[in-house]
User: What shape does this take?
Amino acid sequence: MSVAENGSGNLVVTLSRPWKFEIVLPYSSTQVTATQGSDYTAMSTNITIPAGLTSVSIPIAPVDDAVFESNETFQVTFFAPVTVRVPGSAVATVTILNDEPAPEVEFVSATDSVMENDGTGIRTIGVQLDRISEVPVSVNYSVTAGTANVVNPNRDALLPSGVVNFPALSTSQNITLNLDNDSDYEGDETIDITLASPVSAVLGTQSLHTLTIQDDESTPSVQFSLASSSVAENVASGNLAVAVSLSGPLQSASNVQYRVVAATPGTATGGGVDYTLVTGTLNLAGYSSGGSFSIPIINDNIL
Assistant: This one.
């Protein structure tokens, strides 16, 4: 027979025919996968079948807990008194039907932040179940870049995937991330950790966790590589290349405006006489140490 964990039931004992005397039948319960005391009320007593009757009921009392578990069983065994023969079917199996829903698995929090130069270089992200489960639970996770660098996956944080395993009766576990303390200026960046494909559980509302990695580098400065330079009037390219350098690595591309003006005092004349007054934008590629822009030089015949 089966009985709901949050209900009750009766195990019916029958005789093959009426007997003129009452029959006292000993019986007891034995756990199989269910546990006496925590899953059902243990039984070890006698039941009396009055004279002339052929059946009587034994009440079954499951214990309704808040634990998610598989359907579980125990057995009730009847022992023969002198006046009655008990056949092989005198062992009854009772199945207790679980009534709790599968636990929800989710992150402890939806967001978190950590300094890039955190001393441990490791960040743990908490994952939890909303209820105790006697059944082991697992859930897959993946780590993807939000705004963190994915050009080189060894920068910012390693982007692993894996499985979080909850042993029976455990409600909390951690995902461990290794952070990379680089020397690049990159600003605060984020990575996303996503839970998926739970086993013996369902996803809770917080199945996405966003971790913000707070940058510890200061904004790099941009400057000319040289304070002064010279160029032949008849330079083959017709241009003076002016080098610009950065004080430190810059992860993403950036740009800087430049403008060439006549020096005061100065001996060269701009405006197309000795050189061209130019303005423009210098594009600095990510991970570059700098760049350069050109000033057109006029090769005239004037001494």
Notes: Residues 222-296 form one domain.
